[in-house]
Amino acid sequence: MFECKRVGVEEGQSRGPQTIEKAKQGAYVARTVSGLQRIPRRDGTVAALVEEADGALTTHADYYGFLQTAIDGADLDALVNVVLTVGVVSNHGNWFTAETLNKEMRVLAQSYDWVLFLTDSGLAEFIEDVLQGSAEEFAATRAAFTASFGRSGGVTTFTKVTMDVDADRELTDYFAFHRPWDRWFNVITPGQPVGKLQDDLVRLQNMHDTGWRRA
Predict the structure, then answer these.
(1) Which of 84, 86, 82 has the alpha carbon at shortest distance from 50?
(2) CA-to-CA dists, residue 22 to 17, 19, 27, 88, angstroms
(3) For residue 165, what are the contacts with CB-CB under 8 A and spacing of at least 6?
(4) Sheet architecture: strand order including 36-40
(5) CA atoms of 44 and 38, how far apart (whole Å)
(6) Selection from 164, 129, 113 nearest residue 1 by Cα
């Protein structure tokens, strides 16, 4: 499960939104969506409580150790009731600075399995290459974006709810084959390179396909 939080000063406003409320909303979803639950320990580490396929509850001393072992070993039984949670936030100073995590980011970091933030350079690269570039492969995307913003009325075709079908195809291909995750995202938690998340997602997809065919 991926959840994105867009944070910034909205047009016409002099200050940003209530970031702690956004953090709490995201944290609530991340904490309740999976059968794998966190148990904080007195030494600062995190244990795991997981509901097995038969409904039994099992504890594991190392939360991330259990999760990684199950993914690396393609253990479908261990993962049957587990949802991997990934939170993505925009890189704004009202969330945190590079040196100090604010309380909002700490709330998210202790709730999601992975927390990434989109860098300014990553967003700029997308804007320059796709929205402001001249490549014919993004013509429909640029048209949909232009038609949706800087206008006073009409139908929007470039939003999180509605996307032009040709623009969607272009963007799907772009993100499928253009994967500069290490430049676009910095990892807040769990202290692993973003490439590790990519590898885990590939393993989970392979397990899903294999398990579905076997079933």
Answers:
(1) 82
(2) 8, 5, 9, 12
(3) none
(4) 36-40, 46-51, 57-60
(5) 12
(6) 113
